[in-house]
Amino acid sequence: MTAIQSGVVQPHELVELALGLSRADGCVVIADEESTANLRWAANALTTNGVTRGRRLTVIATVDGGQGTASGVVSREAVTPDEVESLVRAAEAAARDAGPAEDAQPLIPVRPGSPDFTSAPVETSVEVFAEFAPALGEAFARARAAGQLLYGFARHEMVSSYLGTSTGLRLRHDQPTGSVEINGKTADLTGSAWVGAASADFRDIDVAALHTEITRRLAWGRQRVDLPAGRYETLLPPTAVADLMIYLSWSMGGRDAAEGQTVFSRAGGGTRVGEKLGPLPLTLRSDPAEPGLEAAPFLLAHTSDESASVFDNGLPLTATDWIRDGELVNLFTTRHSAALTGLPVAPPLDNLVLETADQAAAPTLDEMIARTERGLLLTCLWYIREVDPATLLLTGLTRDGVYLIENGEVVGAVNNFRFNESPVDLLGRITEVGRTEPCLPREWGDYFTRAAMPPVRVADFNMSSVSQAS
To answer: Which domain, by its residues, includes 190?
Structure first.
């Protein structure tokens, strides 16, 4: 008796069932098995916890025609074996109804598959918080004694993805994603500070260190200083740098750049690949094998867009530099857009690292503070929005603590600001780069957690207006 007959259905079996039912010229099937555990707390007490589970099956049918190859994509949740055929037929019908796909390419040919393709998916549970939860309880006790209130949440997700194609590919990847965010407030709620961290398994989360940082920032906020809008020398911590660099990376579409639509378009035509974006030897890179930030080593595309194509599913992903020593060296491309632009094939990866070559000599954020005569220290950015794609001008707000530094010491908290800056322009105005460390982006942490960034010093950061945000 098979697992399907006995009622215990594994994701790889749904993939094989869908491929076996396909009547299309080509077929790609992705099964995603997801489990999520979470904790929430408010005012120094746990409020909720729970575990959710889900399954999604995506079928991509390709149909050849006289004018080209069309594709149809249909995804459904909680699909049972009895429902697989209707899903396959729906994808085939969508392909027949569609016109030729502009990004059409031959499906990726077979290569050695994942040895664990037929194994059960990996699941998370509340046990992932076995060490974290007691440490959080100890932080609650310290916060009560100090007259602080802690709010926040922790989330851990595990997604096992199974990819099968009619060309014979059988690939599987297990992706853990975890994050914790803690807001600390004074008892009268007038002071606020935020810290966050990302983790694959919560074993490396140091709750005591996070709470110590909250306590330090709340103490900085006891002295209040009002400052006007203007341009200030500013220290950005890794989390703020991550939010800016992630948006920069999302704007790195090679085809859009070649068509003159983005900040990476060259005046007069073409792209800025090969151009220096800044004087410092900064490298922005991705690597599926980056220690602590491991990501899928092959492309998983549920839909086609500027940077990924469903026809490229299963394409191997390798370490890629986007900016090397300050020079733009790659932009996101599919096989189709690479052929159009003459750029190398370079799909996006699910992690991002910014660093200088000599990490041993790079200063810590505290060392950068100590040599600041007068400037601002940000905590994090939020509500970031694009103003002008031609320059990648972004606007947003500061939140949960902007601090004034004088003569190497933080002397107080200042009011919040709205900022207007382009991360590409900032690359040319960074005057000092600190030590790269894993960090959690504040604004984009719901979408992108695998980041390692340095603190940076920026000359004349544009605080365009005063904000009432707290």
So the answer is: 3-217
Together in a domain, 175 and 309: no
For residues 293 and 335, state if they share a domain: yes
Same domain, 207 and 264: no
Reading across the β-sheet that carries 26-42, which strands appear in turn?
68-77, 45-65, 26-42, 148-165, 170-186, 192-199
Q: What parts of the chain have a pLDDT lower than 50?
A: 1-6
Q: Is this model's pTM higher than 0.90 or not?
A: yes
Residues 157 and 209 in one domain: yes
Q: In what order do the strands lie in the sheet with 282-286?
A: 327-328, 320-324, 282-286, 352-356, 451-453, 437-439
Task: Report the distance separating Cα 221 and Cα 224, nearest Å.
Answer: 6
SS3 category, 49 = strand
Residue 1: predicted pLDDT: 35
Q: Report d(CA 159, CA 291) in Å as an integer.
A: 19
For residue 127, give the 3-state DSSP assignment: helix
By the 8 A CB rule, do 142 and 12 touch?
no
Cα(314)–Cα(299) distance, rounded to whole angstroms?
5
Do 106 and 205 share a domain, yes or no?
Answer: yes
| 256 shares a domain with 183 | no
If asked whether residues 67 and 103 sit together in one domain, one would say yes
